[in-house]
Amino acid sequence: MTAPVLAPVAAPVLVPTAPPMPAPTQRPLWEVGVAALGAYSPDYPAAGTQRWRGAMAPIVVYRGTRLRVDDEGVRGRLVNTGRFELDLSGAAGFNARNNPARDGMPPLDYTFELGPQARYRFVLEDGQQVSAHLKVRAVVSTNGKRSHGRGVVVEPELRWQRRGWPDAASQVQISTQATWASEALHDYYYQVDPAYATPTRPAFDARAGYFGSSLRGSITRRLNTTTAVSVSGNLSHHGGAANADSPLFQRKTTGSVLLAVIWTPWRSEATAQP
């Protein structure tokens, strides 16, 4: 998957899953490892509170001829014309507890997203690539004991990336995207049921629609054959969002930063086909 790839809707806490390789001709068929993550991000999209969080995430890379799970995504090479591909897109987000605006309300659990992605790309010179993406993902929240469906998100994205810059072991990436979501996800973040209304937090009925837009940038560098580091930043703007009138909607603009160390010590002796 794209490193970094996983993120909560409109308040990205990006989880890298496969850092770029420094363009070797022989790469292992599979790699397995772990990523240590540190993120400073909002509690939820348009939240007024930000904080540092940490997590560990498993890393799996597979470079088969029919199925690939790597720094470009989960690709089941059934639809691949060279420029057009149909694959999978994923995202994840931290939980949020003890948020002042949500005092007395149920806490927000971890979120996970998965769904199809259509991608059209142009390969340029010097390791550069420009691609347009259309992602549709189902959202699930969980606290580890129970899970709930939270609707669907739709995200068009425009992405530029360059491998082998500023050195052969690095990759830089810049992207911009917009997000729309079904009512279930807006309810999860912005609805205030009458039972949780207070004099300063009136009841609010959330609706489906526009969530916000973001600008992201990242640089990932492989230190050796088993270790890579990644630094990324995200600026989100929620002006014009469908639920900007919610008392839980507190900031039109938020930012986040992610630091990650990715370690994949286990790998196959067999090598992948180009």
Instruction: Please compute the radius of gyration using only Cα atoms.
Output: 19 Å
Model regions low in confidence, pLDDT < 50 over at least 5 residues: 1-24
Overall residue-averaged pLDDT value: 87
Query: Shape from CA axes?
Result: elongated
Level of helix content?
under 10%
**Number of E strands:** 12
Q: What series of H and E elements makes up the topology?
A: EEEEEEEEEHEEE
Q: Look at the helices and sheets and give the structural class.
A: mainly beta
Q: Would you kindly provide a written description of the structure presented here, covering whatever features stand out?
A:
By secondary structure, the protein is mainly beta. The protein has one helix and twelve strands, in the order βββββββββαβββ. Strand 10 (209-222) and strand 11 (227-237) form a beta hairpin. The two termini are 17 Å apart.
